[in-house]
Amino acid sequence: MIAILRTTLTREMTLAFRRRADLLNPLFFFVVVVSLFPIGVTLDLAKLALMAPGILWVSALLASLLSLDLMFRNDFDDGTLEQMLLAAVPPQLLVLCKIISHWLVTGLPLTVLSPVLSVMLALPAKAVPVLMLSLLLGTLSLSLIGSVGAALTVGLRKGGLLLTILIMPILVPVLIFGTSTVQAMATDQPWQGYLALLGAFTAGAFALTPWLTVAALNVTVGD
Amino acid sequence: MPELLKAADLFCERDERILFADLSFAVDQGEILHIQGANGAGKTTLLRRLVGLSWVVEGNVTWHAPVADGDALDGNRFWYLAHRPAVTLLQTPLENLAFAMALHNQVLAPEALWQALSTVGLRGYEDVPAHSLSAGQQRRVSLARLYLDLPEVRLWLLDEPFTALDASAVNQLEQRIVSFAEQGGTVIMTSHHGLHHAAVRPLHIGAPL
Amino acid sequence: MWQIFVRWFHKCSSPKWFYQMSKPWSFWLGWAAFVLIGVALVWGLAFSPVERVQGNSYRIIFIHVPSAFLSEAIYMTIAIAGAVGLIWRIKLAFYVAKACIPIGMTMAFLALATGAIWGKPTWGDWWVWDMRITSMLILFLLYLGLWALHNAMERPESGDRAAAILALVGVVNIPIIKYSVNLVTTLHQPATLKFTEKAPMHISMLVPLLLSILGFYLAFLAWMFIRARLEILKRERKALWAQKEIEQLGGL
Predict the structure, then answer these.
(1) Residue C186: is its pLDDT beyond 50?
(2) Which branch of life, at top level (chain B) (predicted)?
């Protein structure tokens, strides 16, 4: 079983790297959006520092959303998704591999990039580790919950747009927990509670979403 | 030979047209069921219902041992080849075959995979990305798994397996199907291509051609 | 004993039974709702005393509160019906869930709109980002998503299942949303009506409010029955009883 999961994960990562352009899109988007805020809103560093956690978080979530549609699309188009649903290995594990590889390829780079961008927004340096930790969990949550939406919309025309509408309400708690964590840290207030909530949310999503995603994939494939 | 599949009272409607109704049949081990019908008659829909991917077809479908897991199919025991060859174009035939094995919970020695690819005529193409292969070659990639020695697999469900194959490949696949059936395996396939053998049983869907 | 239960279960999950059972109910519930809401609104809008702090603008409470309550209750209904449909494969549950979606969406929109109308004279703003309002907005977006998903799928059966899955994801999330939005300080007043405490409102305002809430619930049931009947006819149109019914109603 471990060998199978390793094969699947390797396949997903290999495919991700062979589609390099798709890989870089979210990162470019992240940088561009964060850069636009100071230009468009205010150049005052003090004000930017107040808004920094929110701007970084919203941009990271939106950038992650960009590549969410691709999670199942290629496999759906060439018929591999059906084979996955019929496999001898539980499809929930295969879906989990896909989710983890999506996160490794999107969420993780965004998190790594965030300290650089936080400098642009004058976020206090002491808040940066907490920012990265919260983004790490938050992007994982997004990959997990987003997989349900991706599974529901992969077979539809204009599925990408619908995906955003469907997933947005569910992302609100993640956003609130995440930004509250960073804001609390930046203003010297207790932040551990918010982070714990974010962690709990992510853990819950980890346990529940593979089943929901497989159910959604069965609906899509059988449509 | 013991019965493998029992289908009863199958009913299918698409776009306000009834494709088939009150369709009942059984398949024994070692049989080759050849589902025939015009384009759009519902052959693929029926096959997908048998496999368990689509629920558009109403009615009862019961699979028996050794391929069954309850009423449905056991993932270890069958191959389903759909109309689209399920070949990932960014990967090589070798990677594609290895992944198909992984989904089947099998880890085979690379030599076995090379051998299978060579049998279907892809020697020398094992490491070429599938997007640079022709349609017929891509289909052969997905067919390669049928040439592997997997004693657990007793059932093949093939949807238009001869599409895009040249004459020699068609012959080879026919022989392989027949020899699989002679060893006790069961094949359920849809095809416009006629397969002539004693073990082939036709099942006609829809209006006569 | 078990046999009786099984038979009752099968009867209740039959669309035909629901269709016939709901006809008189929707008629009477509908009229009861009309009367209740009429009485409540007339009483509340014309005869209730003027409020000490807010003046007359508080009167919108008679529409705002029931619609807010109902929008959340309907979402729970949709989620439960969806779960029943997915787990026990009861088509009727899916029909009911689908029928509820536009009603819930309307209620959520009504709550937001009346809230904004109320907010302007009271707080000075049409819109405020506070706990209750944000939750209601998210609820409205969830409804929108459900409706969009239904319409996007090829087959209505797929739409049923997809929407049920989405509703379940949303319902797990609603308490989390409520809690998380709670982290922001609230301008919106906390719940006035609690089951466990004596209501702080004066009886002359409380009674029309309660009547209005009851009326809205009955109206929801009546409206849902009507919509569900239509959905049943659409989906079961191949059945003989449905065809007879359609002919009776005037044909397609």
Answers:
(1) no
(2) Bacteria
Whether residue C52 has pLDDT greater than 70: no
CA B38 to chain centre: 19
Say whether both B136 and B187 belong to one domain: no
What domain range is B139 assigned to? 87-151
Q: Cβ–Cβ of C145/A215 closer than 8 Å?
A: no
* Phi and psi, residue B162, nearest 5°: -90, 0
Residue B102 lies in a domain: yes
The encoded tokens of residue B52 equal 């368990």
The structure's pTM equals 0.89
Question: ipTM of this model?
Answer: 0.89
Average pLDDT (A176-183) is 88
| Residue in chain A lying closest to B91 (CA) | A15
Q: How confident is the model at residue B209 (pLDDT cuts 50, 70, 90)?
A: very low
On whether residue B8 sits in a domain, the answer given is yes
Q: In chain C, positions 128-157, which contact chain A (CB-CB < 8 Å)? A: 134, 138-139, 141-142, 144-145, 148-149, 152-155
Domain assignment of residue B82, yes or no: no
Q: Is the pLDDT of residue C60 over 60?
A: yes
Question: Is B172 contained in some domain?
Answer: yes
User: Token pair for residue B193?
Assistant: 């291509």
Q: How far is CA A53 from CA A47, A120, B10, in A?
A: 12, 12, 58
Pairs across A and B, CB distance < 8 A: 80
The answer on pLDDT for C138 being more than 70 is yes
CA nearest to A219 within chain C: C158
Separation between Cα atoms, residue C231 and residue C248, nearest integer Å: 17
Is the CB of residue A221 less than 8 Å away from at least one CB of chain B?
A: yes
